[in-house]
Amino acid sequence: MECALVGNLSNTCFLNSISWRVVRQRKTRMLYSSANFNAPPLFAHSNPPIERTLAVFGSEEFVWPSPADEIPFWKNTFPSRDARIQVPTDIEKDSNPIHIIHVTAEMAPIAKVGGLGDVVTGLARACLSRGHAVDVMLPFYECIEKQQINDLALITEYNTFYDGSWVPTNAYRGVVSGIPVIFIEPSNEFFKGQNVYGGSYNELEAYLFFSRACLEWMQVAGVQPDIIHVHEWQTGALPLLYWDMYQNLSLQKPRVVFSIHNMEHFGECRKDQLSKCGLDGSIYANVDKAMDDRTIGHNPERLSLLKGGIVYSNAVVTVSPTYLKETLCSGWLASTLLRNREKYFGILNGIDTVIWDPANDVFLPANFHAQKPEGKKICKYYVQRGLGLVSDGSLAGDPVPYITDNVPLIVCITRLVAQKGLHLITQAIKHTEELGGQMIVLGKAYDDRVQGEFEDLANSHNQGSSIRILLMYSEELSHMLYAAADMVLVPSIYEPCGLAQMIGMRYGAVPVVRKTGGLADTVFDMDDSSNREMANGFVFEGIDEGSLNCALDRAFRHYREKTDEWNSIVQKVMEIDNSWNNTAGKYIETYNSIRVRW
Ligand code: ADP
């Protein structure tokens, strides 16, 4: 069996040797309707409606998961998500439709590593539902599961220039979660491997290739969108290629928007590497163009695709107003951003409320929403049982027990990288245990040191009854955890926008966050008496452990001592509209401000 839990519940999966005992597998999802459940106001501490839950849980159909299941509950076969996806039809159409092509390294759910994938899918869907034409161009990573693509068909066989020769390349068209996608598949080794990133090819060169291949396809196919929207350093060379090459060929209409989701990576690139995609790299080694200022005088000096993208795009967007301010006053790119201030905008990300919809989520054992919240309690108990956080032995009869209400469950779903506040996550584990709560970390580490540290933590905690540390990426489990959680922790050192706190809120998890970037724009402290109207979570400022402890203490106290207030804050966070419908309009204004009428 694939190792899913490190230092897992029986502590043997880590050795990859456990044969999980088959107990019972869940047969059907529980769908809540008023017919079988009369919506009691039910969150923390309220008495469970045992008679009614018994009626539901006594059903032959429903089976609780257990840590001993051969197939972990998040790997069950779920109904197709697409069947449930409903593109909102009630959204007013914009009067001047635009054609936008996103060029991106990630797209949820088929090629998602972090928030970039979510943003592309959510923004694309929001613009589609407002009547615009949208395509996404994505590398055809070998790891993409083709059954998640509808109507996949080869549409163009063409050649793309790379490193002195023309590489045969295929373009496929397909539909993913209702969004048209063009997949670029080179015949060389690029984009092969088991993961989106980290294959055994040169990643920088692969994305240089991809940037040119997308423009080449537009030229060959005769497609001229109004807007080419590029994302992150991976596609930062496209604006250079567009203005200095393809504008002199046959593409003239498009204007380019560049989104910066995170300034952690600058797309460091040697001149000779940039030259491989057909540009003369030395032309860009200039402080006003793409020179990485930090490397001046080094041998070799280097370029930054992020900087080049900023300089050469018609508009540059970052993902929250506070991150915009932060990037203008710190970091080596601040001077470049200040020089380009007039075209630099901070637009808060939204979440895709079609994918993240607790009322329709196919991964949940029970659905719920703000007006009918009781399914959330089932989700919490389901996850607790599946991970061995409550023992099934004491729960004969299967009603959701009172104990579930008394123990606050906090989740942290994150890439395990320094930006995310690793020492604070570790401290939260310790402090949650001290406070008698439960915590689940779902995280993927990208370097051996961090992996080792969290494996040690998992080995020392996963045996007990309060902490689970799951070192992997699982889209399905992430949905279940948001739904199960009373609180969602995002203790980032910096956070350009952050989606976990917004998703958590939609699923009724109260956020506990550090005040930085988009977290500061979306979470407002419950104990700030000057801002009661916005109050929706617990905020701390310091990066020290004491600051985190204090926020957790306050959150746990609220949960345990102010039940009614807690229940209403859960309802309030579920009702907050962080959807793209709310924020896509700002992107459309930006697109309109730079497009050329043709
Ligand atoms: P970032 O883009 O920096 O990773 P965001 O908060 O913007 O952070 O977006 C993170 C997205 O990735 C969210 O949808 C979150 O649920 C998801 N995610 C992060 N880690 C995991 C994981 N280990 N398993 C599943 N989903 C994850």
Automatic annotation (TrEMBL):
Transmembrane segments: none annotated. It is found in: Plastid, Chloroplast; Plastid, Amyloplast. Its EC number is 2.4.1.-. SUPFAM superfamilies: UDP-Glycosyltransferase/glycogen phosphorylase. Keywords: Amyloplast, Chloroplast, Glycosyltransferase, Plastid, Starch biosynthesis, Transferase, Transit peptide. The keyword Transferase applies. It is an enzyme of class 2 (transferase). One of its GO terms (biological process) is starch biosynthetic process. It catalyses: [(1->4)-alpha-D-glucosyl](n) + ADP-alpha-D-glucose = [(1->4)-alpha-D-glucosyl](n+1) + ADP + H(+). GO terms for molecular function: alpha-1,4-glucan glucosyltransferase (ADP-glucose donor) activity; alpha-1,4-glucan glucosyltransferase (UDP-glucose donor) activity. Residues 405-559 form the Glycosyl transferase family domain. Pathway: Glycan biosynthesis; starch biosynthesis. GO terms for cellular component: amyloplast; chloroplast. It holds the Pfam family Glyco_transf_5. Residues 99-327 form the Starch synthase catalytic domain. PANTHER family: GLYCOGEN SYNTHASE 2-RELATED, PTHR46083. Belongs to the glycosyltransferase 1 family. Bacterial/plant glycogen synthase subfamily. This is Starch synthase, chloroplastic/amyloplastic. The lineage of its organism: Eukaryota, Viridiplantae, Streptophyta, Embryophyta, Tracheophyta.
